[in-house]
Predict the structure.
Amino acid sequence: MEKQKKIPTKETDKIETINPYSLTKFLGEELVIKYAKLYNMPNISFRLFNVYGPRLNTKGKYGAVFSIFLKQKKNQQTSHYCWQWKTN
């Protein structure tokens, strides 16, 4: 499957799931839509990312990135992050 070319994408653009994570997010939204139509219920899906709150996991390999940024701000540190997407 091909990665989205237009950034930012619109809600009306065709969805291209490029990995298992994006596929499960898409299928979850589709499940809500189908269920709501089947039972004639209103529905809404939120696409949340970097969610934080009082029970945020701040430790370990999978600690939320937001907590890392908060700790760095508190200690007056800065970091530079770079993510690369491998495309074939």
